[in-house]
Amino acid sequence: MVAIDPTLLTNIFLIGLSGTLVCLAVHFIPVGGAPAAMAQATGIGTGTVELAAGSGLVGLITASYMYAYEPLADIPLVMAAGAMGSMVMLASTMFAGSLIYAYGVAVPFASAQVKKDPITGDRQDLYISKGTQGQGIPTICFVSGVVGAALGGAGGGLIYFVLMDLYKPLLSMTSAFAVAGVFTMGVMYVNSVIPSYGVGGTIEGVHDPKFRRVVGKDVITSFFVSILCGLLAVLIAGGMSV
């Protein structure tokens, strides 16, 4: 039997919290899917899982690097490193996509969800191509995506930090790195899939009415699923110590 002490309960809660951050992050990222690939919707032309996992995995790399090479690395530093890696990755993706939209497809960036961009105040409805849901990656979508990447990267960094503390006393350092990294990837993928059902295709970001409609349910679901992931991580650690 595994004795659950307050430290382990805290670890389970932190993994639940970090998984929830990853799920929340997905709703901020402008996911356009196939319509965006044809410039018929705003956002990046791929799905929720790919975007969340892609930015999250880059954040995991930067978080693990901080953990491994900074002797004073604590939870805030590791989370900040994860957030920074994810932000750079997703910002680069959106910038490259914007170049293609502007110079390859020759469309103006416009959102169909708001009359004016909440950040720049620029009119959007005047530039929406007929038969589309908008096109390109307007300023609000870009900023929302960067914020989402920060949340997802920070969440991934938190998962990794907690798991390293669990597995480091039980395994060699190299094995602990591997197990923590793989488990973190698993939690990220789980929390990337959950919001894909709520989003149901495309979402522009925090200003999208769909955000307010689905984010609450998805976040609650994600928290409880992530708690189960945390419990599994603790049980695995308990099995290693036997």
Can you give a write-up of this model?
With 242 residues, the protein is mainly alpha-helical. It is 70% helix and 3% strand. It has one domain (6-241). α5 packs antiparallel against α6. The longest helix has 33 residues, at 209-241. The chain starts with 5 loop residues before the first helix and ends with a helix. The model has no long low-confidence stretch (mean pLDDT 86).
Topology:
Elements: H1 6-28, H2 33-37, E1 41-42, H3 48-69, H4 75-105, E2 110-111, E3 133-136, H5 139-167, H6 173-199, H7 209-241
Parallel strand pairs: 1-3
Antiparallel strand pairs: 2-3
The neighbouring-strand order within the major sheet is 1-3-2
Strand content: under 5%
| Fraction in helix | over 70%
Order of helices and strands: HHEHHEEHHH
Query: What separation lies between the terminal Cα atoms?
Result: 9 Å
Looking at the structure, what is the overall shape?
A: elongated
User: How would you sum up the major sheet?
Assistant: 3 strands, mixed
Oligomeric organization of the protein chains = single chain
In short:
By secondary structure, this protein is mainly α. The protein is 70% helix and 3% strand.
Key structural traits:
single chain; 242 residues; mainly alpha; three-stranded mixed sheet; 3% strand; elongated
